[in-house]
Amino acid sequence: MSKLWLLLNGVIVAIIGVISYQSIQETPKSNAESPEEVRAVAQDPLTIELTLERHYIDGNVEREQVEETIASMEDFWSEYQDWQVMEQKEGHIRFRKEVNDISPYLKANGYFGLKNGKLTIFEGVPVHESAVQSFYQIDTDELESHLFDRLKEGIKINTKKDYSEVLETFRSYQKAEAVNS
After folding, report:
1. I need a labelling partner for 83 at 20 to 30 A (CA). Which of 2, 24, 115, 163 fits?
2. What is the per-residue pLDDT for 178?
3. CA distances for 79 relative to 67, 69, 75, 94, 177, angstroms
4. Whether residue 56 is found in the same domain as residue 110
């Protein structure tokens, strides 16, 4: 009888083992996605519209519209780390960057000259009277003749250094404004 009892216990343990193994294999998967599905979702690129605003020291602002496909948010933010987010909404980000230089437009077309006695930047040679920006009144009576002649002809603005030097040179000839008392 003890052999029969031992055989019966062995069969019961085997049956329990088979049932347990089958139940483990048939357990429904949770709602969590498999690692392959997660990787597939994470690799889908995001397309976004960007407005890039560059503000130059001469006051010019250049705007550029760009459509960017983003594969990695970390890489995206790294690329625009020198830019300031001005506006962000779904599908669009507007960035701004202060550029410590004169604008490409001014480099290509800018000339200093005089208009109505004011130091002025012109689009092209001052003869054409297409003033872009005025600064301050110049005391032309105090102005040295060669400087006056240069302003009449137009002083080409090629670099930030040219821009700064002309402003500084003519600042000493700025007319003092009369103060009303």
Report:
1. 163
2. 44
3. 14, 13, 6, 14, 47
4. no
